Amino acid sequence: MSGRTEVLQKRSPTDSVGNLYYRIVVFGTLALVVALGLVAFVDLFDWWNVLPWMGANDTGWELLFAAVGAFVVPAGLSILWWKLWPAGVITGVSLSVCLYPTLILLALTALFAALDYATRNRTEPVRV
Predict the structure, then answer these.
(1) Is 81 inside any structural domain?
(2) Number of folded domains in the chain?
(3) What gap in Å lies between CA 121 and CA 116, rounded to an integer?
(4) Is 117 helix (H, G, I), strand (E, B) or coil?
(5) How many other C-beta atoms lie within 10 A of the C-beta of residue 43?
(6) Model's pTM, two decimal places?
(7) How many Å from the N-terminal Cα to the C-terminal Cα in the chain?
(8) Torsion angle of alpha carbons 5, 6, 12, 18, nearest 10°?
(9) Domain that holds residue 70
């Protein structure tokens, strides 16, 4: 029992600072990847050309540059994760690749739930 209490008491005040740094970096990276993914979507349809790597090219080239950016940007941001950089690369790239299918599935789920709710509360048949 005394060994366990010694281990718990050896924590330094800098441990919480390190945890705070990693929390800020992790959530900041995820937020930045999502934000850049949404801006890339808008830039793909030429509604707002702001990303320098996509430019004002044809749609095929913009898709290619967006795909490259989906891998390069999270890999670059993973440098901030220090010794956990492999986890940063895996998390960032998987988020950037899975962002659009996830948003499409969420939209379809919300549409289905709204239609289900609208049709479930009818007590009499609809007359045409």
Answers:
(1) yes
(2) 1
(3) 9
(4) helix
(5) 21
(6) 0.68
(7) 77
(8) -70
(9) 2-100
Give the C-alpha separation, 50 to 45, whole Å. 12
**Cα–Cα distance measured from residue 32 to residue 73, given in angstroms and rounded to the nearest whole number:** 10
Distances (CA, A) of 82 to 16, 21, 44, 60, 78: 16, 11, 32, 35, 8
Q: Residue 18: phi, psi to the nearest 5?
A: -65, -40
Question: Cβ–Cβ contacts within 10 Å for residue 40, how many?
Answer: 24
Instruction: Confirm if 30 and 22 have CB atoms less than 8 A apart.
Output: no
Q: How many residues does the structure list for the chain?
A: 128
CA distance 92 to 26: 9
Question: Over the stretch 27-72, which tens digit does the pLDDT of each residue have?
Answer: 999 999 999 988 888 888 878 888 888 878 888 888 888 889 899 9
